[in-house]
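stuck on this fold:
=====
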Amino acid sequence: MDLDYIQLNKIPNAGLLDSILELHKIIFGCSDNLVKQMESKPELLIHVAMEGTNVIGYKIGYGIDNEKFYSWLGGVDQKYRNTGVASKLMGKQHQYLKEQGFKTVQTKTMNKWRSMLILNIKTGFDIIGTYTNEKGEFKIILEKIL
């Protein structure tokens, strides 16, 4: 499998953005105000996995402050899961964060995203807390020292 990985520090051009939004909608069910949310994030960082011109995975995050980064959203096309794409996206994100001087990366997930929870734990994240969000969903907060 010959994949390309792209890093962006801003919202991508319309074609690439549409492909990310399409994949996001397939994975999470909607992408209604995702662009507006991305526009409001400081130090936006996007990693995209591509096979040819097809977006097959993405990871989006932003700086919380000079030392802590929040790994916000990500997903991989179902046909490409369990092939290392998510691990590679995470590795590229974490390498960049180290180079930029970030000390920790934080993320949140839910039990229903077990593969992401397991990947996070396998790659050095610790569970630092839990809470129930406004929709009544149980969330798990994880953090990793870079």
